[in-house]
Write a structure and sequence with these properties.
The chain is mainly beta and 192 residues long. It is built from two helices and 13 strands. It is globular. The chain binds 6-phosphogluconic acid and nickel (II) ion. 6-phosphogluconic acid (6PG) binds next to strand 3, strand 10 and strand 11.
Length: 192
């Protein structure tokens, strides 16, 4: 771990950092149970354990005062009519926020609080999103190319995936008539 201030480049075309410590690859398998259309999911997985997204992190101590940062790249595609998306999570320390800067692609950030408030923010190059403390967040790629974001969040935040893995987010982003629309998640609205 570097003990002096450092820089890194985000080079075109893919914005992969010129230096990183962790490279996380999330495939279909890691998203089991998160997609509505289980038949489409199973059919895709039977063909290939498709790579959905990747995260490049620069390692810093997971302590308050440090800011963890890196690049998130969600690849384009759909499972049924649902777009490729990240697992999504609350921060273990709920009272911790996050900043996202969209560098490439088009998509949205699906967000919600434990109390059920929800929000969906559009992402396109140049957009900066401030995810307030207490809001879970999931990136969704609604475009034809990679959705690339730079993220930064407090070192002590941690990740709570378990809560989201239970029922998913209250809102889903699906393709309807060639465009992305936000719909209720039947698992929350009692449809399932
Ligand atoms: C974080 C950030 C961000 C996120 C990636 C992948 O808290 O670390 O929100 O880096 O981890 O976008 O998304 P998942 O962590 O939900 O898989
Ligand atoms: Ni986060």
């Amino acid at each position: 771990m570097t003990e002096t201030p450092y820089t890194f480049d985000l080079n075109d075309p893919d914005c992969i950092p010129s230096r990183y410590d962790n490279h996380i690859r999330r495939t279909l398998t890691s998203m089991r149970g998160q997609y509505q259309d289980t038949a489409a999911y199973d059919a895709m997985l039977a063909k290939e354990d498709t790579l959905l997204y990747e995260v490049y992190e620069l390692q810093r101590p997971h302590v308050a005062g440090e800011v963890l940062h890196g690049i998130s790249i969600v690849h384009p595609g759909k499972v049924g009519d649902e777009y490729f998306m990240t697992k999504g999570h609350f921060h273990t320390v709920l009272e911790t926020a996050e900043v996202y800067h969209c560098l490439k692609g088009e998509g949205c950030m699906v967000m919600e609080t434990p109390e059920g408030e929800w929000a969906v923010a559009e992402l396109r190059p140049g957009v900066v999103l401030y995810v307030l403390p207490r809001w879970a967040h999931r990136s969704v790629n609604t475009g034809a190319g990679d959705l690339v974001t730079l993220f930064a969040y407090p070192g002590h935040a941690g990740h709570d995936y378990g809560t989201i893995e239970q029922k998913g987010f209250r809102k889903l982003v699906v393709e309807r008539g060639g465009g992305a629309v936000v719909v209720d998640n039947p698992r929350w609205s009692g449809g399932q």
